[in-house]
Structure formats: C-alpha cells, structure tokens
Design a protein that fits this description.
The protein has helices at 4-15, 25-38, 44-55, 64-78, 103-118. The chain starts with a helix and ends with a helix. The protein has a domain at 19-78. It contains 5 helices and no strands. The protein is mainly alpha-helical. Helix 2 (25-38) crosses helix 3 and helix 3 packs across helix 4.
C-alpha cells in the first residue's frame, strides 16, 4: 500500500513542470555583471536574451523600447545562420562610389555565395 508521503512525492513530480519559475532582479544583475565583464562590448539586449534562454524567464520588458529591441534580438537569434538572404550588401546603402579597398572582400563574398548556391 502506498503511503501518504510516497503519494505526495509522485503528485509533486507531476505538477512540478507546471509551476511558474521565479527570478529576482538580483539574479539578473549578477549574470549581467559577470558576463558583461567577460564579453566586452556585448549589448544589454543580447545579455537579456541570453538570460531568458538559460533561465526560462518570461517576464515582460521594462518599457516599450526595450520590448521592441528584445523582439528584434530574438528574431535575429532565431534566424537560420546558413541563410544567404540574411547577408546584406551594404554597398547598396552607401551613396558614395569608388570604395576600391573593399573590392577584394566583395570578390571573395561573391565566390563563397556561388559555391554555397551550388551545394
């Protein structure tokens, strides 16, 4: 016969995945401080995405601007890394012509893109 304790343990194991997880601002601040020192120049939005991914934190953003930035970072992180359509030729955005020093770079990019398309 199953004891009350054994039955309660099995019930807890069943409902544990359904319980919300709580995260404190201190936990988030500690992660930002630690990884912000290691990865110099990393943007706070990327750190927030990293924290949300590893902790399962689904809290809302502090303001609308932060929410928009977080949405864009999430979109970038979900992109397929091998997709050639994600590479933008910035020359099309540049109005001035005659940047010869980048021609070698663009030649290599073109060759790599042709090679990738053949695969």
């Amino acid at each position: 016969m199953e004891t009350v304790f054994e039955k309660s343990v099995s019930v807890v194991e069943v409902i544990k995945p359904l319980l919300p997880q709580y995260h404190t601002r201190a936990m988030k601040r500690a992660l930002f401080a630690k990884f912000g020192r290691v990865m110099h120049g990393i943007k706070p939005a990327v750190l927030r995405a990293f924290y949300r991914e590893i902790s399962g934190d689904r809290s809302v953003s502090s303001n609308l601007a932060e929410a928009e930035i977080d949405k864009r970072v999430e979109l970038i992180l979900e992109m397929e890394p091998e997709d050639p359509n994600t590479v933008i030729d910035l020359r099309s955005l540049n109005s001035s012509a005659g940047h010869v020093k980048y021609d070698a770079f663009w030649d290599v990019c073109s060759r790599l893109m042709r090679r990738w398309e053949r695969l």
